[in-house]
## 1
Amino acid sequence: MLRVLGSRALQLILVVLGISTLLFFLVRVSGDPALAVAGSEATTEDIEIIRESLGLNRSIFEQYFAFLIKLATLNFGDSYIYLQPSMPLILEALPSTLYLSFVAFALAMLVAIPAGIFAAVKRRNASGRFILSMSMLGQSIPPFIIGIFMILVFSVWLQWLPSFGNEQPTSIIMPAIALSAVLMARHTRLVRAYFIEEMNRGYVRTGKSLGFNNRRIRFKHILRNISVPMLSLIGIDLGKFVGGAVIIEAVFAWPGIGSLMVNAVKARDYPMLEAGVFTVAVMVVLVNLIVDLLYQFVDPRLRAKVN
Amino acid sequence: MNLAEQKVDTVVSIKNLDVVFNTASGPLQAIHTTNWSVAPGETFVILGESGAGKSVSVHAVSGLLPSTARITGSIEFEGNEILGADQESLRKLRAEKIGVIFQDPLTSLDPCFKVGAQIAEIFQVHRGMSKDEAWNQAVSLLDSVQIPDPERRANQFPHQLSGGQRQRVMIAMAIALEPKLLIADEPTTALDASVQVAVLELIQRLRDQRDMAVVLITHNIGVAAAIADRIAIMYAGRIVETGTAQEVLRSPKHPYTQALLSSMPRIGASKAELLTTISGTPPSLATIPSGCAFHPRCTRAIEKCKTDVPRLEPTKQSVNHIFSCHNPAEGA
Amino acid sequence: MSQRMSAFSFFVGAKSDALPKGPGRKKWFRQAGPISLAFLGAAALLSFGANLWVPQDPTYQDLLYRLVPPFEIGEGVSYLLGTDQLGRDVFSRLVHGGKVSFAVGLATATLAMLIGGFLGLIAAYFRGWQEAVILRVVDIQTAFPFLIVAIAIVSIVGAGVNTIIFTLVIWLWTPFARLAHAKSLSVKESEFYRAAISSGRSGFGLVFQHIVPNITGAMMVVWTFVVAQTIIAESSMSYLGLGVPLSTPTWGSMLSEGRNYLETAWWIATFPAVAIMLTVLCVNVFGDWLSDRLDPQTKEI
């Protein structure tokens, strides 16, 4: 267990360092950040002053060393737009993004698991096929389009729900549904496919021969067994989820790190961008670490190997 | 011996059993008018190549055939007809009175639960025991199937046990509720030759201790010889010869049985070895030949074999030794 | 079966038994693949030939006719799908916008297939460190959110069609690489490959003669699903303003403009949304149909 933890922690550092370094050099190669900060009306002297204040007049290695120190101290410098340290701004917006992601993820799973099981058990019936078709349709609709249609129906037409921001308790409903839709559809199909696969396993036949009822076989044994492959998929999906959250935040003007980062790109606000990418990288690796640890716990075959 | 007495003597008795699978490409008949029965304390072995319908006929009894199977005829369990009985009471009857062992003990056990918990679950569900009670019962059951250090083994997962130990766990689960009938579907095929003997001995010992009827399916003549009281030879969905182990193995009458036996019977003989002595391959369900299904591979085939299905008839020596052949060798 | 699923099955989101097969399947459903393809072909042709037939210049602004609802005949001018906030014809913009979606979709998927397929073959051919490096990169990329990467790249390189294609290719080569790797390994196990080796053949001639033909079917299936993914990704980037410059109409940027007028002019956002949905759905249906024919097992990898 400790070895897994150690290797994962090392991987975390490597991935974060690698991504940050890549970002650092690409930014420096691609153009002069000082120009972006100064804007089009700045004089040459203005730009020179800005350049000095950002440390851009030093050699690239000095700059990289300074960048590594920034990385280690989590201080990426002041945001060009907000003129405040960028990392605290990101951290301030992070709970909002995590809240949206968590609600959407929970919603997706709460629907996908029962729907997938139902579609598997009733796979020869119209109801099972209907769920399958719906999930295929759901996978073909990009989440931001679902968001826009929901705004049309529930905000503009029915006027039930707020169309942007996070001021009211109900504000979470539409962004969470829009964000969860693709995952919900995908995992419904996956749960169904895994479930059907497991229904043909030997232990299911054994359970039948022992006179266990269907409910026991399905919900104690099969569900426990599909949790193993499901978990590893969830690990991959949670990482992607952050990406999906970015665009949903944009559609619903949700005050999270996605909105901050999209604005940062448009304004070439590199400190903000670096802090954002760094945070996302850490989150993705952390989520994978947690999933890996859970995986050891869920799959007895792995647990035995580690202990 | 009158009829009533005979019923008590029989655990399960199937009569004129037909099993047809409804498939996408039409119905496939897996079993044709098959009859057999088995008495308490008796081991009945069904021997045949894969695809001969061995498993289908016994799983018609155990209730493990897929829902596409249409079963007709009669299956009496302890004298009561169970074909067409209501599902719930049938499920209870099968749980209590029929134990099943499968070929591959690794896939037949749930990989996610400790073996002790899997056995204990049976007692919790069917005997209403508490978790601790059931666990203790499971440990003592593991002991009775001769698993050393049962306390420790109960706490392990299936993948941590050896193949032979897993099969012992399967046997423990099958006999947990003290069934009247033990169905063993190729119980030793996935095991090493040395372990095969021990598992067969265990099955025999448990049969004697508990007076169970055992129906064992195998393609391995060595296994059949080692354990059988009575043997039925199946080919293409029909029993072609049946009798006591001695009758069938010492003086086989059907050309197919004779061909099977002329291969060297020994424990651990592979399927490929078996087949080398008979030309051709066994037919698939979709392409069963007309008449006697064995005629294309039979050295003694005559015209009649191609058109008429031979009837099962007793030999001159014994009314219990029955076989079906139009043109048996001399002395039959 | 390996416990961890491959990027591919993750990507396609489908496994065996995904759709009811055989006689139970409705007749029209079996024709859905060709129908979808015909629809896509027609839509792509109409888009690429937009200059020849659409009623209006997609960038022409007529502030007198701002926010005209669809299906209304104006004085001397008719706007089939209405106009946007600058008085531009939504229908003309919609047809022109398809160009970017189709071009990016086809170019990205093809490039990604060539690059990913090549790297996958290398990994399977050499095994060794090449395989370790390539598979490791695939693993890391699979877990990382695409849009964040896109944001980083666009912020550095600047927006444009080439940037979008570049970004998407360096993202979407991974399913091809993983598939090519897995399939080539199984080909290498096969009898005829061993026979070819024992007859003294070696090198890339062997790869091209024996491995490549055996993986193209599965690669084509993935290709179609990647086209669908690309169209979604491109429209997402355009929506965020990370796509092509705003002077070029795209479905994503039309949606993004329409988002601010949902209360007053539903049609600006709705029509491009429907266009994206229909296109992606058709590509997916076609891909599913194709996979049933070319490569029934791929879904199970």
## 2
Amino acid sequence: MRKLKEFIVEKLILICGLASIFFVALIFLFLLKEGLAVFKTVSLFKFLFGKSWYPISEPAQLGILPLILGSLLITVGAAIISIPIGVGCAIYIAEIAPLKIKETLKAGIELLAAIPSVVLGFIGMVTLVPLVKNLFNLPTGLTALSGSIMLAFMAMPTIVSIAEDALYSVPKTYKEGAFALGATHWQTIWRVMLPAASSGILAAVMLGIGRVIGETMAVMMITGNAAVIPHTILAPVRTLTATIAAEMGEAVVGSEHYFALFAIGIVLFVISFAINVTADSFLHKRQQ
Amino acid sequence: MKNPYRTQNIAFFFLFLATLLIVVPVGLIIVIIIQKGLPAINWQFLSDIPRQGMRAGGIFPAIVGTVYLVTGAIILALPIGLLAAIYLSEYSKDNLLNRLIKLAIVNLAGVPSVVYGLFGLALFVVFFKFGASILSGSLTLGIMILPVIITTSREALESVPQSFREVSLSLGASKWQTIRHIVLPNAIPGILTGTILGLGRAAGETAPILFTVAAFYLPRLPNSIFDQAMALPYHLYVISTQVPNVAEKIRYGTAFVLLALVLIMNLVAIIIRYKFRKRKKW
């Protein structure tokens, strides 16, 4: 009787262990099931590189290039801001901060990671957007720049915590060796610690960027949502994620628009999959 | 000749500056929301339904909706996540399957939240015909927080020393008895931390509930799990972008309640972890 019970429990554990694989596959399958139908009417090339996104005009124009460029512009902007600040903060926490401050800083970074994106979007709307508007004398502060700044904050917790882990796991002997050769603390960090932790830091940066590309609510609230190809960082843009979030509510289930939004979902899924697999392989390399 | 110590001082100054550039805005965000949101909070705001097209009244249905959604999500995610963590820490061997599972968890954690929304729409709302309902929303959020719960629980289980297991097994306990009576009780604080973090994440997410449950305006409480519901994060989105002329006080008040809910959960998780680490004797 006990044997039977244990047999059942252990099989149940195995099934749950496999659940993650099952769910990832299920997500991808259902995106494909709903999204691939759009390619009956639009070719893949026209979908990815079409210059206009007018999903409800007759006939509908379903080119997501403006959305891809919008996501790209905001992501590049956020990366430029968040990578130096995030890696710098990680070095400070890992190497320089006194022990007590270190714990407080780490808790603070965790709190930043926990703030819901809709709250960050709201704060961005009431503080950052008017600031950008006045600073550059623009008709509206809902621009790619505002989005980039806000998203940089959402990427930083990821970058800081993973990069800090990477620096922390550099063997102590490396550091002692450098000190023994007469290097200053900074020379040790710059010439020894950073190169040794480089693959982990690269993974941190990639995962941070992954977070930016996938971010939805804050972006939808502060980038202005204009589905046109952006020519400057001070213009409103619309991202892939915001398009889905803003339009799915109105799209009729089973319509071309509905399929197109799922096809954007496939694009996002593939991007995040590629980023995560690559970042994971960097982290794995470090462990060996 | 360049003085290496001066270079060091300059470098350390910039690193400190980078840290300030993160910490100060975080502090400012929290201070602004507390300063402008706290005065809006009173019993009526917390217990009344929204009135006059959400321009007056309270946010009670949104709070209740969020509580329902979070409860539903954890009912799904905790058992599956915990058992998956037990599999990874106690049963799996270092082989391809184990590697695949870990990769799947990483990917599950990385899928954009709006894609979870699409998935929930396609699977629960349309395919299973649950409609936009608390059930669909909870299931979607549950799958979304699964990686958080698996990862933290696994860490907690793996931090229980190997010798505990060996002693139990040598006394004749079976593998499951060892897990049930020795490993799990020692890992409870870590599992609790993960669960609370998962709760906080589920409470704050908006994109996954957009098409699966969230009601724009529903000035009553949901009747069953097949009913739509309002939710705090979506309500904040609606009153800050979709409805014109909402008093600033109501917006900040809503933001304050949501932020307080999420930050308190996270603080509790951090404190549990901190206490546990201090108390741990192995």
## 3
Amino acid sequence: MDNFELICPAGTPAALRAAVDAGADAVYLGFRDETNARNFPGLNFTRQDVADAVDYAHARRVEVYIAINTYPQAGNLGPWQKAVDDAARLKVDAVIMADPGLLAYAAKHHPDLRLHLSVQASAANVEAIRLYRDAFGVRRVVLPRVLTVPEIAKLNAEIDIETEVFVFGGLCPMAEGRCSLSSYATGLSPNKQGVCSPANHVRYEQRGGALASTLGGFTINVFGEGEQAGYPTLCKGRFVATGAGEGSGPAYLFEEPTSLNAMDLLPELKAAGVRALKIEGRQRGKAYIAAVVRAYREALETFAAGRPVPHIDLQAMVEGGTQTTGAYTRAWR
Amino acid sequence: MTASLTLGPVLFNWPVDRWLDFYARIADEAPVDTVIVGEIVCFKRAPFFAEAMGDVIERLGAAGKTVWLASPILVGSERERAAMRDLVEADAGLVEANDMGALALLAGRPHAVGPTINVYNEATLGWMAERGAVAVSLPAELPAATVAVLARAGRELGIETEVQVWGRAPLAISARCYHARAHGLHKDGCQFVCGKDPDGMPVTTMDGQPFLTVNGTQTMSHGCLCLAAELPALVAMGVSRFRLSPQAMDMVRVAEAFRAVLDGRRDGAEVAAELGGLIDAPLVNGFYHDTAGARRVA
């Protein structure tokens, strides 16, 4: 039985080396601009950084994927097309994309470039996935985090390209690539600029003993004394739902500040036919990445050897100190 | 190309009687050209309307409206998938695809592309035109400069472009039901609590500032998108279709007002001022003006 491939994030060259050294099978990264969905200040790779990353990874038999997964701006396709051209020239192993127009460009101009469908395309059913395969020759789809494991199994039974699923890290409760919440509050969106709840629109205000976090002027959370304050990602905020019944106060309406951790589901994901497991977190530091990748590598080796998946404590690595299996189990239904 | 008005699908969970009355009045009185019908937010709600759908389509058609059928926004489960396939295979009218799966099934025959499919640039628009798309309703978050490029490209490709000009903006879709979650229920046992809120469930910040609207698995803006004042500019760009998204209000009056602006009989800003008084939400147009969607730019 082939083991899962472990796909790991890197926002910096140091993080890339940490991921490679800790046991990644592939590392995914982005160019330093709006062509990727983690377009944060101080993050991502210059062309030279990518060349060096490919050298370092390939020397250790690790692959490099480049995410060019925002939606190119109308009238300004150049930067996205150049990113695809450069990815091919730099000999990366796959390009992760979402936009049909850009996929068509890549398929036409770089027929040998391996194409993966980004989670930002939110292809959640057999028909959609087959469309990307037939139209552009996509070889792997990163599944949106809206499906249960049984749904993933059914899907894999009907498609003939590989699937990759998120197993650890930040969790979008919304269908990815189909969310304008950040854009509504700040004008900046994952699809257009590659940012969600951007830091330059965040303010923290002391209100008596409480600390409020705001995004684009909207209060996303208020933390009482002694409560651990978190980053105001819009869908992880506390809000008030009007008319939700007696005593309904502020609540985490969409999702708690929590992290996905599907390590306990490795047998189910294997039985469901999943090829690759993805760790989220290109914005994370190298120590975080080394720890999470190492833990998952250990779990995968144990699992591949036919032994029970060990319980590895990643509690210190998770947002808000809580973990969830998200949509994979039936908790959302 | 003459400017036409589209009435988008009812996104909220209205009782069937209200829904039937709404469409009867639209058929008789509203100066809209195309009416798009279908339950696109939640698969669980669809059976309530299935029986009455045929009558509504017939009534609207008899009144001279062009009727299109909308496919669901999120198609994950087997049952959702089967419903999507049935809709396409029934061939009961032109289908507006709201998910790439429906778009796949519609290849090679005329179809429309809904606003929850990502069309952000002319390359993607061209790809869709090749596959048989005749009209594309653009995502709400696109700014004017992008709309202008796409409208121009659309004219060259022979594909009509549409922009939503009235109604709360759809912002996100999830596999999770936030109406059920807010009421302490699971999606499977939701008791259809979304039916309590004919205009969606208002969501405020912890300071009490109105912010968002929850409509089951869909999250919408609190502000009501209004581009009445921007209509002349949109027409000049080559946008030919203008979408009104139903709210629990007098949509006939909304349609009349927008028709009057398109015909040059009324001023857009004046219409915005009038319609703003009819809905319990501020009017917003920030997306179009390339800023936060929640803002209103004068």
